[in-house]
Amino acid sequence: MKAFFRYIWQHRTAYLMVAPLVIGVLIFCYYPPIHGIFLAFTDKTAAVGKQVTLVGFRNFIELFRDPIFKNSFGTMLLIQIPRLIAGICVPLVYAEFIFALRSKQSQAVYRMLVLLPVVAPGVVSILVWKQIYQVDGLLNGILHMFSSEAPAIDWLGDANWVIFAILFMGFPWIGGAQVLIYLAGIMNIPKDLFEAADLDGATALQKIVIIHLPLISGQIRYFLIFGLINGLQDYGTQVVLTQGGPGYATYVPGYYMYELMNVHGEYGKASAIGVILFLIIMVLTAVSFKFIRFGNSKDEN
């Protein structure tokens, strides 16, 4: 132990230089989640002057008896599973199309075009789609062009259509960063593999299945894991677009947590939802790393 402290003292200048960064990480990155876990076991509310007491697992028990909370998981799966599939597959298909272009100039142009939508903030995109989904908005106008008798659908106010509206938002679901990451992985594949495939008479589809997919498996797993995490945490669409409505049709756990904290002031119960989501994300991430293996196993050891 003395040797350890002697080593720190000998290099005290370096440790002092790193100290502000470490202190900032502890305060702003580690303290909030640790404090949130603590609040999950208390009756903390927005009431001023109320003494906070430990209540054990009461918040968790109340949540699992709450039909709104239980139904929110079904809604989340209904929204996020198609989003996850589209977020993995559609950018990959588009990246393959760009890679198949013979002209390098055309490839550069399309890379720039898929990156342009990233410049706009996500909230701006959601607000644009909110205008598209208005009763007198663009989507109903397009439908009216094909059939003058088509009814004006309240896409965000009708429980029968609101999930479809959320899923369709962002069409064609290309996403600039995903396409470029896939494309970078495909372009880094050794050319001799393609030459060998050409000599064997492999078709374009066979090259994709046999060469591309195994060698960009790292990118696929990356989008899978972070898609799961983002899907569990996401509630921005509900905040900006639907406010959880109509009724409880678009409630997801993250939005219910947001409403409990910001509308009802139930900090303890909202923190309990955060802990539950944290545990689910941790388990899914561990399972993904443990069981979802791609590519050459020697590279992963």
Shape: flat
Please outline the major beta sheet. Answer: none
| CATH class identity | Mainly Alpha
Number of helices: 16
Report the CATH topology name: MetI-like fold
> At CATH's second level, what is the architecture?
Orthogonal Bundle
Please give the domain count: 1
What is the total tally of β strands? 0
How confident overall, as mean pLDDT?
Answer: 88
Radius of gyration: 25 Å
- The helix fraction, in percent, is over 70%
Contiguous uncertain segments of 5+ residues: 295-301
Distance separating the two termini: 34 Å
Q: What is the H/E string?
A: HHHHHHHHHHHHHHHH
Sum up the structure in keywords.
301 residues, mainly alpha, 71% helix, flat, disordered C terminus
Quick structural summary:
It contains 16 helices and no strands.
Characterise the protein shown here.
There is one protein chain. 71% of the residues lie in helices and 0% in strands. It is mainly alpha-helical and 301 residues long. The protein has one domain: Orthogonal Bundle (MetI-like fold), CATH 1.10.3720.10.
Write the layout of secondary structure elements.
Layout: H1 2-10, H2 12-39, H3 58-64, H4 67-100, H5 104-115, H6 122-132, H7 138-146, H8 162-168, H9 176-187, H10 191-199, H11 204-215, H12 217-233, H13 236-242, H14 253-262, H15 267-291, H16 297-300
Helix pairs in contact: 2-15, 3-15, 4-9, 4-12, 5-9, 6-13, 12-15, 14-15
